[in-house]
Amino acid sequence: MVQTKPFDSNNSLLQIKCAIKDLRNFDGVDDEDDVIYAANRLNAVLRMIDDNHSSWNNDAIRDLVLSKHDPLKNITVKSDEFNHRVRKIQQDMIAQFS
């Protein structure tokens, strides 16, 4: 399949922002405070990466997203769906900026 439009990095960034916003509205068994904490943490990481990605290498970005600022390491995750959605957003960040 041929891509008809050139890749727009701003569109990808917007998609990540929308996924984080949708995460705030997650209505599962996880605590609302934990969901909001995770979304806020993901937003902060996204802003950091967006501002500094040109001076960081791929490994640094991956480490920042998955280890240093992983929102799930400080909360108790109760549902696989929530875990999956957060991990998907993190992978999208890494793919966008690597």
Please name the defining characteristics of this protein.
mainly alpha, 98 residues
Largest sheet: none
Count up the helices. 4
Low-confidence stretches: 1-7
The rough form would be described as globular
Overall average residue pLDDT = 89
Give the percentage of residues in beta strands.
under 5%
Task: State the distance separating the first and last CA atoms.
Answer: 23 Å
How many beta-strand segments? 0
Helix content: 55-70%
Structural class designation: mainly alpha
Strand-and-helix sequence, N→C?
HHHH
Radius of gyration: 14 Å
Assembly type of the chains comes to: single chain
Write the layout of secondary structure elements.
Layout: H1 9-24, H2 32-52, H3 58-68, H4 80-97
Helix pairs in contact: 1-2, 1-4, 2-4, 3-4
